[in-house]
Amino acid sequence: MEFAPGDDPLDVLERWKSEADSAGAVLTDAMTLCTVDARGRPRGRIVLWKGRYGRSLSFFTNYESAKGRELGVTPFAALVFHFASAERQARVEGSVARLSAEDSDAYFQTRPRESQIGAWASVQSEPLADRELLLARVHEFEERFSGVQVPRPAHWGGFALEAERIELWSGQVGRLHDRAVYVASSSGWDFQRLYP
């Protein structure tokens, strides 16, 4: 059996990602981020996992995007990881808070320059009349920051999801999958095995 009491489920998740990387899987840092809109309707999209801080998993986005606004109103979310070739899935739920400006600045400087310019040029999630307008905005910011380091725009940065509940799933023969849930507690993680 893959799961046991006493495991740290985030350690398991990191091991799964490392094993997927070693097996040559692509986009092993991709995760589905699920938020809710103002009407309480769920919305999901793929974002990239950019780090772990204790029980928190981080990702970066435009704070004024649909997901950024939704997290500003309802600071709770769910993440889903899927390692298809290994038949593994992890679901992570918890509260969400912005990372510090210093952490966001540090990550922003690791991005390719084109992505940095894109963070300035894109009015993310807003209607776009035609692609030429976007390309004109890219050109505008390329000229604005010509010959200098691109600073992080104030509307762009990181979020951290503090894991409160993690469900791990590992495919098994006959669909008798190994499945367990871990709930954060003051002493670590409470463990419960689940029927598949």
Structural notes for this entry:
- This protein is α+β, with helices and mostly antiparallel strands and 196 residues long.
- The protein folds into 2 domains: 9-109 and 154-193, Electron Transport, Fmn-binding Protein, Chain A (Pnp Oxidase, Chain A, Roll), CATH 2.30.110; 113-151, no CATH class.
- It is 27% helix and 37% strand.
- Strands 1, 2, 3, 4, 5, 6, 7, 8 and 9 form a 9-stranded antiparallel beta sheet that branches.
- α4 (113-121) crosses α5.
- The chain is elongated, with a radius of gyration of 19 Å.
- The mean pLDDT is 96.
Which key phrases capture this entry?
single chain, 2 domains, Pnp Oxidase, Chain A, nine-stranded antiparallel sheet, elongated, 5 helices, 196 residues
Task: Give the topology.
Layout: H1 9-22, E1 30-36, E2 42-48, E3 51-53, E4 56-62, H2 66-73, E5 76-83, E6 88-98, H3 101-108, H4 113-121, H5 131-144, E7 156-170, E8 178-185, E9 188-193
Antiparallel strand pairs: 1-2, 1-5, 3-4, 4-7, 5-6, 6-7, 7-8, 8-9
Query: How would you sum up the global shape?
Result: elongated
Distance from first to last alpha carbon:
13 Å
Helix-strand makeup class:
alpha+beta
Considering the protein shown, what is the CATH homologous superfamily of the largest domain?
Electron Transport, Fmn-binding Protein, Chain A
Whole-number count of domains: 2
Mean pLDDT: 96
Number of separate helices: 5
What is the level-2 CATH architecture name of the largest domain?
Roll
Radius of gyration: 19 Å
Share in helix: 25-40%
Strand percentage lies at 35-45%
State the name of the first-level CATH class of the largest domain. Mainly Beta
**Element-level helix/strand string:** HEEEEHEEHHHEEE
What's the main sheet like? 9 strands, antiparallel
Q: Point out poorly predicted stretches.
A: none
CATH topology title of the largest domain: Pnp Oxidase, Chain A
Give a count of the beta strands, DSSP E runs of length 2 or more.
Answer: 9
